[in-house]
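Exercise: predict the fold of this chain.
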Amino acid sequence: MSGVLILSVSAGQLAGPSDEAGQQVARALLGQGLPVASRQVVDEDEAAVEAALRAGVGAYGLIVILGGGGGSAGEIVRRVLARVTGARLILNERLLATLEAGHARRERPMPRREERLALLPQGAVLWSMERGEPGWVLETERSAVVVLPAASPALADLLSRHLLPYAHARLGREGVLLRTLKTAGLAASDVEERIGPWLGAEGGVAVGCVPVDGEVWVRLSARA
């Protein structure tokens, strides 16, 4: 088991130009020298999410799922994760209190039907925030799975306060030193020609070339 899998669950992102939340999580992890092994986007479809999770659990030390809020993606993630890990869905009292407090701030009672949003797989630990949707983590024998609300304005705070410290504790020994050299005014083929002897070469430092928004980035990475 090594590295992090970032799994975005969203029908819109499959058709859209980008996965902004996934990029945000990847940048935060890589900026701390933590290894992001893969990023994937899957449809809000139970079979698709289950296939991705069954392939990921055990293959990655940490799985970060984006789309775990109160919408349909969040309900699918909870059901599928409970099924894949063999955990029962139970009422999480802390999450229920958080949902009720959010409605109280808006001076509205919480509908009974929304209590289902407080169901989490047994053993899940809530990552609460003062404002905004919380995240949560479920540890299994083979992987840890973190579920975060992709569209929440509190996502950045969830990353800094919860995900990054947790990822360091779980994957700290797998740290990666990363440096990025940004070039401008050059085509990717020109950059690749100049750094050709180092691309794919064996050794302690991996060199890659990535076109990004009109620039070409040269990435150097090495195991810490």
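Check your answer against the key: The domain at 4-174 is CATH 3.40.980.10 (Molybdenum Cofactor Biosythetic Enzyme; Chain A).
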